[in-house]
Each structure stands twice: as structure tokens, then as C-alpha cells.
Write a structure and sequence with these properties.
Layout: E1 21-27, E2 39-45, H1 49-62, E3 68-71, E4 77-79, E5 84-90, E6 98-101, E7 105-109, H2 114-123, E8 126-127, H3 139-145, E9 148-149, E10 152-153, E11 158-165, E12 170-173, E13 179-181, E14 184-186, E15 191-199, E16 201-202, H4 205-222, H5 242-248, E17 255-256, E18 259-261, E19 269-271, H6 277-295, E20 304-306, H7 313-318
Parallel strand pairs: 2-5, 3-5, 4-20
Antiparallel strand pairs: 1-2, 6-7, 7-15, 8-16, 9-10, 11-12, 11-15, 13-14, 17-18, 18-19
Helix pairs in contact: 2-4
Bound molecules: flavin-adenine dinucleotide.
Flavin-adenine dinucleotide is lined by residues 33, 69-77, 91, 110, 134-138, 140-142, 144-145, 147-149, 192-193, 223, 225, 229-231, 304.
């Protein structure tokens, strides 16, 4: 990991050098699964947890007004074309510890990919986390979103989480500290996940590994996985499916710029790599408006739309 140079200006996030990597004006498109959107003012990848803690402490005194956003694998965010204000802390690939604990439990770092967590659990002969294999995010992102699939969700497995706050203080919390719902988690403000302990059950490693293979096969049959996307754009409304409603509204296959409502799965918006975030957001809002107008159902985005519109955003709003 490259050491960052010491930076000491009110416009920088830290006064001291870190052991991690700090870069200015970094394009984020390549760090998101939608492969679209603008740059981060500052992108920081800590070397490890101590480095993250030291950096946040420094930031809290040096640039407390500068916003902080954590990013995992960027598989549930739409970063607008104008980019993200302030400091983006990129955890994917760091804080990626995985360890078996006594009592059929797993300790997982927030930067670990969900797929690695699922495979590690299965190899250890622990069952219950196979559904994580097809979720292309980090454990931290899964905790933030209460990610789930095939009837499983991460939070029912959580015994405890570790977090860090904006002052660099570490906390250990339990599910009782959070309000947890379908793809929604609310807890202490300005606090981010650094890891968790999951309670699983003892099982057969071969059964777990087979189950992972089956789930991945089923997923690739139903979803357009080869193209940039964020997975499901909308949460499923109570008793219905967002994909069904978008399709019934006649929007499957609709294009705007280079973005398209997937002909394979109407709750996916995909593109060939050349769409602007504004094109994707236009389709998202259009689908929302049409489903509301035709069926009176409000579709709530599952994806988190972040950042500043690009210079051409207004113009694209008007085009069909
Ligand atoms: C092809 C495809 C299929 C998908 N299938 C599913 C599915 O079956 N089920 C499902 O639930 N989701 C699915 N998703 C969505 C996505 O993978 C999940 O929401 C995932 O949990 C996001 O993790 P991430 O690391 O990519 O988070 P990011 O997209 O990086 O971030 C998502 C949100 O979490 C916040 N965040 C990230 N890391 C942390 C942290 N350490 N602490 C606090 N906040 C943090 C971010 O600020 C942001 O608000 C799919 C996505 C794609 C592209």
C-alpha cells in the first residue's frame, strides 16, 4: 500500500500522513457495479483498522465539516455525474478478516466480499450464509442494506457488529441498537461498520458448497449479470414485485441515452458501459412516475443515489 504524503491544508481531509492511500479527484465509476458517475473529491483506502481510526480522529479535528461517505464494492449506489463531495472511505479489499469463532460463529471484516464470506462459511461446515454468495457487495455494505436473497437476510444472523464513528471511536453493538427492516437499517448517525460476528449452524461443507452453486446458477438464469447494474433498482412493494409492475407499465426494454430497463429483468437498469449516471437516474425516475401514474404504487428505490448532478443533468431531464 502506498503511503500518502502529509497533507496540511484546510481543504484536505487529514493533517497527518496516513499509512493508507489518499488520492484527490478519483473517478468512482470504476469502483461501482454500475460503472457510471463522477469523481470523489478525496478517496481514502485505509491500510488497516488502526489507520482508519487515526485518520478519522485527524479528520474530526482538521476538517470536521467535510462529509464522509463509506464505499464498499459500490454495488448498491448510483454516484451522480458531478461526483461526491468530501471524503470517500473505500473499504473493499481492506478490513477483510475472516475467522471461525467457537460456537459455530464467524467473525467477518466489513471490507470482505460477501461471496468470500459465504464460501468461507461453507468450507468451515457452517450453514445459513450461502445466500450471500450471489450478493456482489462487501459485508459492510450488506450490513448497511440488510442485504438478502432467496429468503435469507444478513441481520437475522448477526450477533454483534463493530463500528467506528466520525471521531474515530470504536463501538461494539448488537441488533437491538438498530431498527432493521427489508433492505433498510437505521442506527447511530455518522457511524460505520468495520465488521460483524454471525451466528450460523453446524452443517455439511459439501451441502453448503452445493447450495451456493445452485443459487448462483439460478441467479444467472434470471438476471442480466454480464452488464453494469446495481441489481434490483427498487424495493419490492408489500405483496408485489417491482419487476412485475415496471414490466406491466410497458417499460421493459425502454432506453434513455445508453441506459436501458433490462429486457431480461425489469427491475434492473443496465448499459454497455457508456451511460451517464443521469441517463440511469432518468429511467429510474421515469419508472417510478409511470408505476405511480398507472397503478398508484410508489416504488421506493433500493439503490442509494448519491452526489452532485453533472453539468448536463438538467438538459437530460427533459429528453425522452
Ligand atoms: C448484479 C447484482 C445483484 C444484486 N443482488 C442483490 C441481492 O440479491 N440482494 C441484495 O440485498 N442486494 C443485491 N444487490 C445489491 C448490493 O450488492 C447489496 O446492496 C450490497 O449489500 C451492497 O454492498 P456494497 O459493499 O457494494 O455497498 P456499496 O454499494 O458500496 O454501499 C451501499 C450503501 O452502504 C453504505 N456502506 C458501504 N459500506 C459501509 C460500511 N462499512 N458501513 C456503513 N455503511 C456502508 C454506502 O455508503 C451506501 O450507502 C445486487 C447488486 C448487483 C449489482
Amino acid at each position: 500500500m502506498m503511503a500518502a504524503r502529509a497533507v496540511d491544508s484546510p481543504m484536505t481531509p487529514f493533517a497527518q500522513a496516513t499509512r493508507g492511500r489518499l488520492q484527490a479527484q478519483v473517478p468512482l465509476a470504476g469502483l461501482t457495479s454500475w460503472r457510471a458517475g463522477g469523481p470523489a473529491d478525496w478517496l481514502f483506502q485505509p491500510a488497516d483498522l488502526d489507520d482508519l481510526v487515526a485518520a478519522l480522529r485527524d479528520h474530526a479535528t482538521h476538517a470536521p465539516q467535510m462529509p464522509v461517505t463509506f464505499l464498499g464494492l459500490g454495488s448498491n449506489v448510483l454516484i451522480r455525474d458531478g461526483g461526491l463531495d468530501g471524503l470517500v472511505v473505500h473499504l473493499s479489499g481492506v478490513l477483510n478478516e475472516r475467522r471461525r469463532l467457537e460456537g459455530d460463529r464467524l467473525l467477518l471484516g466489513a471490507g470482505l466480499a460477501c461471496a468470500q464470506a459465504a464460501r468461507f462459511g461453507a468450507r468451515e461446515g457452517l450453514v445459513g450464509a450461502e445466500f450471500l454468495a450471489g450478493i456482489p457487495g462487501t459485508v459492510g455494505g450488506a450490513l448497511r442494506m440488510n442485504a438478502g436473497a432467496w429468503g435469507g437476510e444478513i441481520w437475522p444472523l448477526v450477533e454483534a457488529v463493530s463500528t467506528v464513528d466520525a471521531r474515530g471511536e470504536l463501538h461494539t453493538r448488537t441488533p437491538a441498537d438498530y431498527t432493521i427492516g427489508y433492505r433498510s437499517v437505521h442506527g447511530p448517525e455518522a457511524e460505520w461498520f468495520t465488521g460483524c460476528v454471525l451466528q450460523l449452524a453446524a452443517g455439511d461443507p459439501d451441502v453448503g458448497t452445493r447450495r451456493i452453486r445452485e443459487l448462483l446458477r439460478e441467479r444467472s438464469a434470471k438476471q442480466p449479470l454480464g452488464l453494469p447494474s446495481c441489481g434490483s433498482v427498487f424495493r419490492n412493494p408489500e405483496g408485489d414485485h417491482a419487476a412485475r409492475l415496471v414490466e406491466a407499465a410497458g417499460l421493459k426494454g425502454l432506453r434513455h441515452g445508453a441506459a436501458e430497463i433490462s429486457p431480461k429483468h425489469a427491475n434492473f437498469i443496465t448499459h454497455d458501459g457508456s451511460a451517464r449516471a443521469a441517463d440511469i437516474e432518468w429511467l429510474l425516475r421515469h419508472a417510478q412516475d409511470e408505476v405511480q401514474r398507472q397503478f398508484g404504487v410508489h416504488l421506493e428505490p433500493e439503490v442509494r443515489v448519491l452526489g452532485r448532478p453533472g453539468a448536463t443533468h438538467e438538459a437530460s431531464e427533459g429528453t425522452a
